[in-house]
Amino acid sequence: MLRVRDLVVRYGGITALDQISAEVGERETVILLGANGAGKSSLINAIIGIVPTTSGTIEFDGQTISDQSAASRAACSIGYSPEGRRVFATMSVRDNVLAGAARLSKREQQRSYDKLAALFPLLADRASDLAGYLSGGQQQIVAIARAMSASPRLLLLDEPFLGLAPIWILQISDAIRQLRKEGTTILMTEQMAIPALKVATRGYVMRSGTVIREGSADDIKDSALAEDYL
Hints:
This protein is of the alpha/beta class. It has helices at 40-48, 70-75, 93-98, 106-119, 121-125, 136-148, 166-181, 193-199, 217-226; strands at residues 2-11, 14-24, 29-33, 55-60, 63-64, 78-81, 154-158, 185-190, 202-207, 210-216. It contains nine helices and ten strands.
């Protein structure tokens, strides 16, 4: 579904990605593991089109999207949940979630919200509450639901476990498994190797803008855990 080939991203004189190649097949959950500065978020940002690439290509469903705008890529059915949740604190939970479904009709939005509320009971229980009053884990669920509200075929999750208590990591892990079961393809970044490898089917270990190991979750486990930051 997604194919990145020889991608280079530079910020001024700093090379954030150095000829990175990676693939995500349909219905896979693929994990990018690495410390801060490894290039994980740079790769996600390049895929969604919010940072320019120096060279290389990005393909989605067999079509090159490297030269498309971020809005065009979102319209291609790519959803994105950013690092740090970034909910709209003064908006209700419901309005936060449906902010990701602006292109849908009111009826389609209602259908989408009902479907997500069945997956995430929090959305039904706290629909009218301001998102800013939720816990970190609850806000992460709202952010993931917002990214899913337009029913994207590919979901990008940037550090979904960041700063969360173990109970919320377990709940979000269950949600990721359920999304894959329902047919959503997922590419996620994470520093926490142990919980991430439990939900991933395959992954890449990154360091300093390069891939140092790739394979199934079992194949990369030892390599990931050998890195002192994981």
